[in-house]
Amino acid sequence: MTKHRSAAGVVALYGRIYALGGHNGLSISNPWNATTQIEHLDGCSAHVEWSYVSPMNVTRSRVALVSNMDRLWAIGGYDGMKNLSTVEMYNPHTDEWTFVSAMESHEGGVGVGVIPLENVPLDGLKLADVAFSLSSEVNESPETGTSTSSRP
Predict the structure, then answer these.
(1) Regions in the chain scoring below 70 on pLDDT
(2) What are 10's strand-pairing partners?
(3) Superfamily of domain 9-121 in the CATH hierarchy
(4) Measured between alpha carbons, how far is residue 94 from residues 70, 71, 97, 140 in Å?
(5) Which of 43, 72, 85, 113 is the most buried (most CB within 10 A)?
(6) What percent of the chain has pLDDT over 70?
């Protein structure tokens, strides 16, 4: 990758490896050390190198990631001050991030498993008994009060 990261999420889609969010390793509790940046490594390209794609809308480290339904999903995480309930969906064809339905609880360090057409968090740092499925329905972000209107 072009920069060192700690607590970043990693996921694969279409022969590319994506590294999302994380922090610079100096202090996870300082929000200025976390990032919204995403890099990908295209394993199918003749010239293999890390390059950036559009950043997420929210700073996230300890984020759960999954590729499903032709999209990347960034679920929960930690912004340097609090665990997050927001979920963002990335469309690699348009290079856009969109807020989708948020979780009911704030989760950082959550695990995600794919059951045909559903994403189910398995555990988080709160050790909550939480399960939900993701929807591509666009929602307003509770953390930022913003939304986007694009849909997959």
Answers:
(1) 25-34, 45-46, 113-152
(2) 19
(3) Kelch-type beta propeller (2.120.10.80)
(4) 12, 11, 9, 20
(5) 72
(6) 64
Residue with tokens 């398995």: 122
* pLDDT digit string, tens, across residues 65-76: 888 888 999 998
> Is residue 108 a contact partner of residue 100, using CB atoms and an 8 Å limit?
no
Among candidate residues 81, 69, 75, 63, the one with its CA nearest the CA of residue 103? 75
CA distances from 60 to 47, 116, 117 (A): 29, 26, 24
pTM, full prediction: 0.70
- As a residue count, the chain comes to 152
Burial of residue 77 (number of CB atoms within 10 Å: 0-12, 13-18, 19+): buried
